[in-house]
Amino acid sequence: MSYRLIRPFLFAFDAERAHNLSLRLLRMLPFPSPSTADPVLAQTVAGVRFPNPVGLAAGYDKEGLVAHKMHGLGFGFAELGTLTPLPQSGNPAPRLFRLVEDRAVINRMGFNNGGQAAGAERIAKRRRGDAIVGVNIGANKDTADRIADYVTGVTCMAPLADYLTVNISSPNTPGLRALQDRAALDQLLGAVMAARGADRTPIFLKVAPDLAPADIEDIAAACLDHRVDALIVSNTTIARPPLRSRHAHESGGLSGAPLHDLSLDRLRDFRRALGTRLPLIGVGGIATAEQAYARIRAGASLVQLYSALVYEGPTLPRRINAGLKALLARDGLATIGDAVGIDA
């Protein structure tokens, strides 16, 4: 109820200003230490013990300002970034749009961030307790060698992260998605996994929903060949289903409710291609416990959300976790792990 009262105030600002205001508010608020893992919802993925399966997706906390505190809202983990080796301002504003009638967001931010050196210093100072924090890494827009940028990201951020996400699926850096092609992906993953070395920080790969069947087979094979630790499905889409908002024509990545079905379909595709050989993380259009549960039953070990927070408010992760426990009890399942992939 409190968020319903506050939301009109936030929506009076343009989307990016409201986003920055929410970050400032969260930075000022005291947050409790990470809660004890719930034995019903906790599970281990890629050697990391997640206290519950609901995570904050990358994009909200690009700089590592509040990721360490998000467990206080009920998240089991938070992913910050995308961080690039060098600072960059991103694309010109306006570049973030609420599609209120569609419960969606379009962004063309362009990896705006202060660079990995500043991010690393900030993360090292803020890490606390047992909060699970992943770091999403990308390449600078004007780099001469994108693969070298990812290697730099691994070298810089691996010692500070519970896991790293290699983001090759943003539509807002020209040509970035070409790294999903098999030959380029083999070269990238070979370099990234070699750069990890003995550190053994888990490496996750984040892919787009806009993939053909041949792309799915190639990506699945490359992940297995290079022993990637998990696959995040999916990033935003460049597709435009029917939308009602006046912002529907804006370029960039579409997220929120209209992404739900497409992202779920891609998750099912990757589950068919991979079986149980690689953990999957479901992202895209998740706003309810029922939607999170469907993603888990389709094969996701964990889920992430971001755009739904814009419309549902900061109590959403706790509500989803409570709903997941009720759904498990309804179905006679003891733990969330028992539900992973049972519809696959």
Chain-wise SSE layout:
Blueprint: H1 2-11, H2 15-28, E1 43-45, E2 48-50, E3 54-56, E4 77-83, E5 96-99, E6 104-107, H3 116-126, E7 133-137, H4 146-157, E8 163-167, H5 182-196, E9 203-207, H6 213-225, E10 230-233, E11 253-256, H7 260-274, E12 280-283, H8 289-297, E13 300-305, H9 307-312, H10 316-330
Parallel strand pairs: 3-4, 3-13, 4-7, 7-8, 8-9, 9-10, 10-12, 12-13
Antiparallel strand pairs: 1-2, 5-6, 6-11
Attribute tags:
about 350 residues; eight-stranded parallel barrel; about 15% strand; alpha/beta; three-stranded antiparallel sheet; 13 strands; TIM Barrel
Can you give a write-up of this model?
The chain is an alpha/beta fold. The chain has one domain (2-339): Alpha-Beta Barrel (TIM Barrel). The chain is 35% helix and 17% strand. The protein has an 8-stranded parallel barrel with strand order 3-4-7-8-9-10-12-13, surrounded by 5 helices. The protein has a 3-stranded antiparallel beta sheet with strand order 5-6-11, with no helix packed on it. β7, α4 (146-157) and β8 (163-167) form a beta-alpha-beta unit. α4 (146-157) packs parallel to α5 (182-196), α5 runs parallel beside α6 (213-225) and α8 (289-297) packs across α10. The two termini are 37 Å apart. The model has no long low-confidence stretch (mean pLDDT 95).
